[in-house]
Amino acid sequence: xxxxxxxxxxxxxxxxxxxxxxxxxxxxxxxxxxxxxxxxxxxxxxxxxxxxxxxxxxxxxxxxxxxxxxxxxxxxxxxxxxxxxxxxxxxxxxxxxxxxxxxxxxxxxxxxxxxxxxxxxxxxxxxxxxxxxxxxxxxxxxxxxxxxxxxxxxxxxxxxxxxxxxxxxxxxxxxxxxxxxxxxxxxxxxxxxxxxxxxxxxxxxxxxxxxxxxxxxxxxxxxxxxxxxxxxxxxxxxxxxxxxxxxxxxxxxxxxxxxxxxxxxxxxxxxxxxxxxxxxxxxxxxxxxxxxxxxxxxxxxxxxxxxxxxxxxxxxxxxxxxxxxxxxxxxxxxxxxxxxxxxxxxxxxxxxxxxxxxxxxxxxxxxxx
Length: 369
Ligand SMILES: NC(=O)C1=CN([C@@H]2O[C@H](COP(=O)(O)OP(=O)(O)OC[C@H]3O[C@@H](n4cnc5c(N)ncnc54)[C@H](OP(=O)(O)O)[C@@H]3O)[C@@H](O)[C@H]2O)C=CC1
Ligand SMILES: O=C(O)/C=C\C(=O)CC(=O)O
Known about the structure:
By secondary structure, this protein is an alpha/beta fold.
């Protein structure tokens, strides 16, 4: 008689997943089309009385509408969010929040705006409500990034973790397809590195695989039909899962390279992730075969590294650093920075191999070719 398949954790779990400590982070998620309308109740639930609405200069209309929704609980709009959170933008925002007596901030926009909210919270402890309009996933992490004198520094601090996240797929309806694709691949990168993280665990791995699957399918749907709200919901769901993974477990070489490229060469964040990810996965493939198998399965591809490269190409995203503003003569500096203060990585960092990785990413070579 056939026995049902036994559960064999030692066969399916990699070493770090058989022996782990997991501390779940507190965050409240409201996920629904139209969930922005719940903002006044969510501000009240935090015990806040005056919420400052944060945005980029281009999203003022949405921020003003959000402020109007809050009525007397609004402390107005601060529209100085910028990519990579330059330190002076953080200073200005902190000063403004204090001047208007805000006891809460609502960050409505992409990862840049959420990042500004985090920079305020880092100093003041102000509770943040995040309303993401891209798929970057920052809203689920206690990670902040601030750029000062050409170097992006990141850190973890629970004070910056948004207390409440309103996921409203309607808000990303008009996010351009190109931006949707690259921010979705940014989120896929969180999950991919989570699958080989030193401090990974089985629950995060499940979320990572599901997140990659949801994003790969959702992004293909948006590419076919930008207003497909089921596809947009799938991407936001994937962003939630992948962001949660990044929030709970460590990042490795891929994120380090992207932070270096973004902070020191001001490259666009999500596009940089999109170009670098396939090369970072190729570099780590031999050291993390189980993770690669799970990434490939979630992408519906035979191989993780080429699967990511092909997904980007299929969806019309950039695949070469030279096409997104990276000067070739800056590559040695990237290598130097990446080696000087590295994140843990499953494969030891080898200067020659990393040089080749960067050269391939710069030229847009398909991994393995
Ligand atoms: N700490 C963390 O855990 C994480 C942090 N990040 C950080 O987030 C930033 C990247 O986030 P990302 O979201 O990609 O970048 P942005 O927030 O810069 O947004 C990217 C682009 O999308 C546009 N956009 C955003 N929302 C909409 C919308 N609803 N409709 C139309 N256009 C829209 C923005 O326009 P506009 O400029 O007009 O607003 C911008 O041009 C980086 O600084 C990165 O470091 C990313 C992931 C995780
Ligand atoms: O730069 C930050 O805010 C910190 C982390 C990230 O950006 C994660 C990422 O590289 O997407």
